Input
Amino acid sequence: MEELIQQLKVLQATAFSLYLKAHNFHWNITGPNFIQYHSFLNTVYDQVHGTVDDYAEHIRALKAFAPGSLTRFAELTKIADEVAIPTARNMLAKLASDNAILLNELRTGADIAQKANEHGVLNFLEGLIDDHEKLQWMLVSFEEA
Output
């Protein structure tokens, strides 16, 4: 069970990092497609932020404490921080790369949950995998433009 709890903590921190980066890019995007990108990024950060609490609740249901500080998230996340302001195209490419990292961690978590017979956690993670696969094709589609 400890392996699953730890993976859920990594997922929570990684999702929070993706949320924060998408929100940063939402605030700072520029260019001729500003309105479309700004709106799309709003959808991305809202969707991802909405999951952070769910990770914490699953961790708590497994009788562990969820991380809740920037320091702890920085220790656990698999996504690199972004302090620069990239071009709009690079912002979307970075989010695609980061979402792929989160997807990989979600799949790892689903494997661990299945082995642990934690079907509720497995269902939760499989739903997120579906959501992030859809987000992935959307983000990658920007690169093709």
